[in-house]
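## retry 2 of 3
previous attempt timed out at serialization; input unchanged, resubmitting
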Amino acid sequence: MDTNKDRADRRQRTGMGVVGVILREDRFLLIRRSKTVTAPGFVCFAGGGVEAGESEQDALVREMQEELAIDIVPNQRIWESVTRWGTELGWWLIEAAHDLDPVPNPAEVEEIFWLKRSEITPRRDLLGSMPDFLGAWQQGAFKLPIDY
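## retry succeeded, writing output
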């Protein structure tokens, strides 16, 4: 049986992760991480580790199914970063059905939010990579289909 610990061990070995940026009009899909995963309780975009031999796109498809039970299409790799603990992240703009209805997997996701940028930036419960992403966007490091 593949447990959360098994997946976390594989992710640590690859040192690669993916982040899925999903927009519905001017709102982003964010999650609050469950209490059973690394960085519990923090708010971030959905995503996770790239397993050995897996492409970033395949990892995104798998992670969105595992965390939110949604089908997605990785559209464009928009940014990359390295976390404070050394994990290389690929940030992807994701295509998803406009009427998608995410169902949080309680083992990984405590709750979901659809938030505007103005509702995200003042939060004090953001995972550390989120302010980095928002700052890079504000500075023009990449474009999104909405204005900063």
